[in-house]
Recover the amino acids of this structure.
């Protein structure tokens, strides 16, 4: 009898933990509060409010090129990781690419953007951002996606013409990444947000580049490797000896990102 009671108690505890994980998954995947505060933007920065369904809006940040280039340069459209502030991302891109116009999107529910984040919302809003830029800028667009943002960039490439995509620490599938981190939970059944980066990329001919971190425990090599294999036109494949979060401070990262953008920008 005691064994039956113990089994029922453990089953109940497991069901409770699974129910909590199911209820909190949006916050765990899209921790908007961690990206609420960004750095001050320089003069010349523009914030554009783009209307979404339901009287909500998302904010696109744009910075013009700091100096002119001898030849036309693509506009760089950045999509940050799940805890990135778009202002910080656009400033990082500006420092590395002063001859390019740069832009970044505050995800739904992040910072100045309203609403509630979801995979579908991020994908839809990326298209809104692209359509706005395409209506104002004659330059080609290269999408740069960091971690979760790589999934957004790939989904955008499936429906909009991009010059290229640069994926930094990308994962092949959100459900497979979640299953890797929580093997004791039935996350494939519980997950409401779908991001199938490798599957989407497999059907695209867009020039691509991949930058990964050798010691990444957040997006391990087993989850980024399928992205490389899915890319039909992989122009750059760079691995840096760092972890997931300290990759951007590594001395080799800026050169890796610049060379990746240059590789996908060539016809």
């Amino acid at each position: 009898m005691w064994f039956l009671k113990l089994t029922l108690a453990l089953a109940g505890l497991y069901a409770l933990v699974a129910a909590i994980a199911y209820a909190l998954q949006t916050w765990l995947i899209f921790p908007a509060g961690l990206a609420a505060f960004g750095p001050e933007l320089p003069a010349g920065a523009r914030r554009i409010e783009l209307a979404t369904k339901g009287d909500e809006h998302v904010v696109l940040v744009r910075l013009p090129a700091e100096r002119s280039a001898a030849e036309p340069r693509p506009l760089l459209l950045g999509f940050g990781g799940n805890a990135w502030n778009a202002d910080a991302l656009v400033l990082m891109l500006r420092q590395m690419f002063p001859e390019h116009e740069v832009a970044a999107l505050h995800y739904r529910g992040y910072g100045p953007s309203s609403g509630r984040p979801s995979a579908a919302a991020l994908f839809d809003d990326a298209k809104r951002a692209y359509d706005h830029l395409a209506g104002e800028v004659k330059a080609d667009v290269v999408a740069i996606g960091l971690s979760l943002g790589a999934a957004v960039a790939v989904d955008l490439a499936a429906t909009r013409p991009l010059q290229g995509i640069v994926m930094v620490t990308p994962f092949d599938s959100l459900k497979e990444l979640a299953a890797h981190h929580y093997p004791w939970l039935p996350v494939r059944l519980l997950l409401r947000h779908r991001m199938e980066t490798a599957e989407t990329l497999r059907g695209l001919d867009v020039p691509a580049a991949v930058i990964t971190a050798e010691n990444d425990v957040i997006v391990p090599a087993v989850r980024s490797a399928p992205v490389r294999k899915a890319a039909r036109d992989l122009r750059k494949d760079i691995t840096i000896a760092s972890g997931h979060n300290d990759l951007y401070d590594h001395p080799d990262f800026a050169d890796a990102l610049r060379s990746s953008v240059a590789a996908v920008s060539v016809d």
